[in-house]
């Protein structure tokens, strides 16, 4: 009887946790939209235009780097420099950057002789930069011409340490890519809006984030041994009481994985990076001053536990189908619960896509594709977390986190 009660408890946890978080995200994102996004907003007029140093770390990005740099050069912001950080590329990336540098005075290149990883490259870029604001983007990103205006406008507050932008998927030819279009709108965007309302953002978007240089140095720069630089630097800044903001008008067009293997590697890296941050910053529980980070920390730990329980119950269910164990039937989404969760997910997707219609008129059309998210991505994300958590917990820290070029999908232009 005791075993049965535990199974029932775990079954309810698998159901109620995503249900509760979906409701929180819908409420938070709706409030953020009504309070800060609704209505037409003009590009902010700035009293001054501080120099922005755009840092672009790159390794083996010969297919993407030229168009990325050219997109930044079309920015309407009048005062910026571009520093491309070539992390010992083995293709023609360095040659392409040097060609651009020879013809464009706003572009500089730092050639690293050894593959040291993205965090180390960003450290070099921060030291070489001349601007008071550092805008970090990925080597496959197309920056919107007005993105810098929107991001710089937040730094009029003295305690603003970073501003994260709004990544938009630009390759939409495959089912995986189309689902991710909806994911960035209905999941990632809604979470960032909610966390901003609650006061603490789990992570900036590594593909587009602006930092106050003073804050970056105050936090000790990027840690070179972390798999994901964006989550860790966010926590380092917030532990130093710098404010992190989300600016949905700061658009950046990105490529997402379009193969299962590429998506798997991306989600394993995200999961491992998140667990590494949980491991490194567990000292926040020792200080009452860090209490505003406790809910963010706890929610992430609960999501890790959910992944393990979800996979465990799935295994028990499969075993019950093939071999009688004597355990009761495991129903992850039984009877009315499955219908309720499906309805809440659909409502969340509808709200997220409706909010993002302000930035893409055609985005509600992706509702048909994003409804497949719970079936495919919940399982993939859970498996990635179960696989990555032990790697993060038992990984020997201190060694530089080097990188390989991710799956960029089908390379397309806007």
Overall helicity? 40-55%
How many domains make up the coordinates?
Answer: 2
Alpha-beta classification: alpha/beta
**CATH architecture type of the largest domain:** Alpha-Beta Complex
For the record, give the distance between the C-alpha atoms at the N and C termini, rounded to a whole number.
Answer: 60 Å
Description of the molecule:
Helix content is about 50%, strand content about 15%. It has about 425 residues and is α/β, with parallel strands linked by helices. It has two domains: about 1-30 and about 290-395, no CATH class; about 50-165 and about 200-275, Spore Coat Polysaccharide Biosynthesis Protein SpsA, Chain A. An eight-stranded mixed sheet has the order 3-2-1-4-7-6-8-5, sandwiched between helices. Strand 2 (about 80-85), helix 3 (about 95-105) and strand 3 form a beta-alpha-beta unit. The termini are far apart. The mean pLDDT is about 85. It is found in: Cell membrane. It is a multi-pass membrane protein. Belongs to the glycosyltransferase 2 family. One of its GO terms (molecular function) is glycosyltransferase activity. It is an enzyme of class 2 (transferase).
Topology (SSEs and partners):
Elements: H1 2-37, E1 52-58, H2 65-73, E2 80-87, H3 93-103, E3 107-112, H4 118-128, E4 133-137, E5 142-143, H5 147-152, E6 160-169, H6 175-198, E7 208-212, H7 213-218, H8 229-239, E8 243-254, H9 260-280, H10 294-322, H11 335-356, H12 367-370, H13 373-394
Parallel strand pairs: 1-2, 1-4, 2-3, 6-8
Antiparallel strand pairs: 4-7, 5-8, 6-7
Helix pairs in contact: 1-6, 1-10, 1-11, 6-11, 8-9, 9-13, 10-13
């Amino acid at each position: 009887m005791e075993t049965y009660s535990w199974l029932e408890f775990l079954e309810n946890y698998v159901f109620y946790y995503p249900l509760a978080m979906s409701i929180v995200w819908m409420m938070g994102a709706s409030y953020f939209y009504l309070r800060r996004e609704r209505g037409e907003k003009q590009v902010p007029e700035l009293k001054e235009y501080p120099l922005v140093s755009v840092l672009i770390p790159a390794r083996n990005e010969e297919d993407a780097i030229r168009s990325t740099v050219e997109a930044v050069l079309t920015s309407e912001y009048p005062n910026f420099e571009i520093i491309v950080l070539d992390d010992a590329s083995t293709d023609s990336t360095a040659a392409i950057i040097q060609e651009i540098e020879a013809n464009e005075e706003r572009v500089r290149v730092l050639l690293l002789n050894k593959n040291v990883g993205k965090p180390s490259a960003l450290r070099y870029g921060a030291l070489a930069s001349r601007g008071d604001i550092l805008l970090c983007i990925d080597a496959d990103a197309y920056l919107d011409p007005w993105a810098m205006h929107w991001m710089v406008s937040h730094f009029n507050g003295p305690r603003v340490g970073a501003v994260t932008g709004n990544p938009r998927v630009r390759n939409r030819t495959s089912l995986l890519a189309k689902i991710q279009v909806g994911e960035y709108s209905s999941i990632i965007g809604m979470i960032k809006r909610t966390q901003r309302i609650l006061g603490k953002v789990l992570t900036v978007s590594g593909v587009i984030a602006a930092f106050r240089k003073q804050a970056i140095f105050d936090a000790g720069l990027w840690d070179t041994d972390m798999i994901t630089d964006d989550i860790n630097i966010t926590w380092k800044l917030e532990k130093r009481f710098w404010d992190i903001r989300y600016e949905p008008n700061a658009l950046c067009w990105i490529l997402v994985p379009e193969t299962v293997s590429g998506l798997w590697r991306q989600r394993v890296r995200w999961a491992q990076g998140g667990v590494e941050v949980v491991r490194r910053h567990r000292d926040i529980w020792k200080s009452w001053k860090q209490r505003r980070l406790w809910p963010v920390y706890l929610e992430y730990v609960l999501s890790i536990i959910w992944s393990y329980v979800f996979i465990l119950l799935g295994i028990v269910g499969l075993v019950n189908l093939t071999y009688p164990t004597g355990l009761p039937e495991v129903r992850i989404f039984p009877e009315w619960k499955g219908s309720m969760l499906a309805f809440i997910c659909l409502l969340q997707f509808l709200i997220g896509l409706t909010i993002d219609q302000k930035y893409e008129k055609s985005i509600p059309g992706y509702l048909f594709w994003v409804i497949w998210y719970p079936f495919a991505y919940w399982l993939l994300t859970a498996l990635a977390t179960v696989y990555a958590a032990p790697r993060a917990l038992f990984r020997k820290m201190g060694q530089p986190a080097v990188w390989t070029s991710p799956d960029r999908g089908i390379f397309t232009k806007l």
